[in-house]
Amino acid sequence: MSAQAPSDNVRQFTVGADDDGIRLDRWFKRNLPQVGFATVSRWARTGQIRVDGKRAKPEDRLAAGQVLRVPPGGDEPAREAAKPRARPLSPEQIAEAKDMVIRETPSAIVLNKPPGLATQGGSKTTKHVDGLLDAFVEGNAPRPRLVHRLDKDTSGVLLIARTPGSAASFSKRFASRSARKVYWALVVGKPDLAEGVIDAPLAKQPGTGGEKMHIDEENGAAAKTRYRVVDSAGQRAAWVELEPLTGRTHQLRVHMAAIGHPIVGDGKYGGPDAFLTGAVSRKMHLHARRLIISEPKAGEGTAKNGGGKLDVTAELPPHFAASMEVLGFDPAMSDASPLREEVPEKTAEEKKQAARRHFKQARKEERAPRRARGGAKAGKAPGKPNPKPNGKPKPAAKGKPGAKPSGRKPVR
Predict the structure, then answer these.
(1) What is the pLDDT of residues 326-378, one digit of tens each?
(2) Among 18, 20, 134, 151, which one carries the catalytic annotation?
(3) What is the CATH number that goes with domain 2-70?
(4) Would the N or C end of the chain have less CB density within 10 A of its end CB?
(5) For the purposes of burial, counting CB atoms within 10 Å of the CB of 231, is it exposed (0-12), middle (13-18) or buried (19 or more)?
(6) What is the pLDDT of residues 64-78, one digit of tens each?
(7) 32 bridge partner residues
(8) Are 166 and 146 spatial neighbours (Cβ–Cβ below 8 Å)?
(9) What are the structural domain ranges in the chain?
(10) Is 151 an annotated catalytic residue?
């Protein structure tokens, strides 16, 4: 956002690349948070807000380069847009955050999250990745933000967006499943099938306060996981690649336990059977090994040369690498290639065409009952009203076409 010299206290702003595609009301919340939503709505309703000289609604989307006219008032004249302050961190905390970095681009910071470190804070969680992101704030740059999460005991690739615009872009890619994630896991036993897809809906397990998930065929949300066995140590344990095709909480852990092969160290879903004897660590062995995702294109909140493919691999944590060695697994046997084909991103025109087809089909389905009712009315004999039903309708008789009903009750 860049401000231009005001005229008669009317302010003008040029929409920046980081705000491309944002709603007008969200623009105010991000750039002029002191102006409330009620004020924005009133200004829009009375035509005082203009975008490139035209009236605009709060839900309208802005484009980079457009000029936004904002009337005077709505806040204190000398007050500037509030910016979140960076939380002071100790030198040790800054060093811890920097040590996790495995890749930096104009739009992203990619971390290798260690096991035992939560992604976000909670009522009893004070140390977490989100709290360390202030280590990456420089000058007036926005605070980096989380795009997705990993369980506390899961290690591996964690993507951090540098700006609100790149966060929105990355979030769309995760939501559309165009981002591809491959996990490595050690599981108890060896699956009968070398590879397959686990299709089991998941829901929060009652009585756990939402802390645990379970398979719920009736009310659960769709959840699919593709797996492949890379190697095995007899029937004792197996090394598998996992690719979530959906993004449910604890999905990989619940699915592997559901087929009788819990992840090693996952006592929450595998119980005592999830632990191996000997020198194998009792920590959970689930690691986000590789992430492949498209970076934001020019105008989506990053540099002009954006839009490339971000392909990052995270090294195993010490306990996982040691267990691999104990079980005789060679990491070179897998490059963590995605198990499914890449889903190409749709162009703007393809999205419009899909929306038109969806709307056309919806209208067609809506009109079908009306046509059916119209056809039924046209087929009635004139002057004969419909007889009123007397009680429950009788079941249709079963038998050959043209046969007379026998008078017997139909067999149930």
Answers:
(1) 999 999 999 888 866 555 555 556 666 666 666 677 676 676 666 666 665 55
(2) 151
(3) 3.10.290.10
(4) C
(5) middle
(6) 889 999 998 775 443
(7) none
(8) no
(9) 2-70, 167-333
(10) yes
